[in-house]
TrEMBL record:
<dbReference type="InterPro" id="IPR036890">
    <property type="entry name" value="HATPase_C_sf"/>
</dbReference>
<protein>
    <recommendedName>
        <fullName>histidine kinase</fullName>
        <ecNumber>2.7.13.3</ecNumber>
    </recommendedName>
</protein>
<dbReference type="Pfam" id="PF02518">
    <property type="entry name" value="HATPase_c"/>
</dbReference>
<dbReference type="InterPro" id="IPR004358">
    <property type="entry name" value="Sig_transdc_His_kin-like_C"/>
</dbReference>
<keyword id="KW-0597">Phosphoprotein</keyword>
<dbReference type="InterPro" id="IPR050980">
    <property type="entry name" value="2C_sensor_his_kinase"/>
</dbReference>
<feature type="domain" description="Histidine kinase">
    <location>
        <begin position="21"/>
        <end position="201"/>
    </location>
</feature>
<keyword id="KW-0808">Transferase</keyword>
<keyword id="KW-0902">Two-component regulatory system</keyword>
<dbReference type="InterPro" id="IPR005467">
    <property type="entry name" value="His_kinase_dom"/>
</dbReference>
<keyword id="KW-0418">Kinase</keyword>
<dbReference type="InterPro" id="IPR003594">
    <property type="entry name" value="HATPase_dom"/>
</dbReference>
Length: 207
């Protein structure tokens, strides 16, 4: 698996590019909220879908608050990934399998990290389609915490092109959190994307 270099963004492109990224992610959150707000026949409202709708509105609020600048704090990566995976399960047909892990804390901007993980899952689910599977793993060692998203789909070259903003959002999170991005995508099926962030073991309250 190779590390991907993340280019620095210039001041001239920041405003227009970030505006496009923001619209891209807001559309994802709103689309998921619309799906969740449609109660299936015979299913009573007020259960899990309502909880996920509330989560989507919190994500939108978090995203809009982040426009004022990065808010670095301690993020419970395990919980955040679980929330993003739950939304992906109701948005796409591909099964999203998460491996259980204890709390993994990282230092970074929670809104950016959520956007990064959400976009990683979005790309993986689109690649997996209706017949593939997406797996998500959170792990930590002495120096870094990692979120790895793997799909057994067509790979980067085998799915229809998107806007390109998804990978830019992940790259922005990598820069802001001083992490790195690793991507493995062979000539055949399957892609693994790993987001590596500095871990923290300080006993502080997660964001």
């Amino acid at each position: 698996m190779n590390a991907v270099s993340v280019p620095e963004s210039s001041d001239g492109e920041n405003s227009a590019t970030e505006s496009a990224r923001l619209c891209h992610d807001l559309r994802q959150y709103v689309a998921a909220g619309l799906l969740l707000s449609t109660t299936a026949p015979g299913r009573e409202p007020g259960g899990q879908p309502l909880s996920l709708i509330h989560q989507q509105f919190e994500a939108i609020s978090e995203l809009l608050d982040a426009e004022g600048g990065h808010r670095v704090g301690v993020v419970n990566l395990t919980r955040l990934v679980a929330e993003c995976a739950e939304v992906a399960r109701v948005t796409y047909r591909a099964p999203v399998v998460t491996e259980r892990s204890g709390p993994v804390l990282v230092r970074g901007d929670q809104a950016l990290v959520r956007r990064a993980v959400g976009n990683m899952l979005d790309n993986a689910c689109r690649a997996a389609g209706s017949t593939g599977t997406v797996s998500v793993q959170v792990e930590v060692n002495d120096e870094s915490a990692r979120v790895e998203v793997h799909d057994d789909g067509a790979g980067f070259g085998g799915i229809s092109s998107g806007t390109g903003h998804g990978l830019q959002v992940v790259a922005a999170a990598v820069r802001a959190c001083r992490g790195r991005l690793e991507i493995s995508s062979g000539p055949g099926v399957g892609t693994s994307v790993r987001l590596c962030l500095p871990a923290t073991r300080r006993p502080v309250r997660p964001a």
